[in-house]
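Re: [ENG-882] Designed sequences occasionally contain unexpected residues at chain ends

Forwarding the minimal case from QA. Structure tokens:
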């Protein structure tokens, strides 16, 4: 004998399958959001580290010693009484 499938059972089965689909979709979405959250935390950590380094550089650049060092290196400044020394070997080796 064949059992007759009722309309209520079909609707119930469709509803159950639909709810399972929604549940799976939510789990996938939650997993993706957690991954994005972890990536953003890593990016935030890297940006904070870079920010701290830049703040340290700003503080260091305000010191007289740093300004003098840059002036000597970039602008070839010398103090009174100092004898300038020219090192050509480093320029030739970099070519």
């Amino acid at each position: 004998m064949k059992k007759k499938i009722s309309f209520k059972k079909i609707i119930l089965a469709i509803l159950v399958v639909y709810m399972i689909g929604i549940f799976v979709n939510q789990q996938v979405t939650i997993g993706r959001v957690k991954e994005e959250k972890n990536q953003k935390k890593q990016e935030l950590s890297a940006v904070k580290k870079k920010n701290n380094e830049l703040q340290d550089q700003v503080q260091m650049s305000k010191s007289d010693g740093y300004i003098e060092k840059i002036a000597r290196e970039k602008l070839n400044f010398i103090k009174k009484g100092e004898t300038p020394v020219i090192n050509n070997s480093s320029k030739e080796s970099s070519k």
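QA comment: On inspection the terminal residues look reasonable. The two ends are 95 Å apart (CA to CA). Proposing we downgrade this to a documentation issue.
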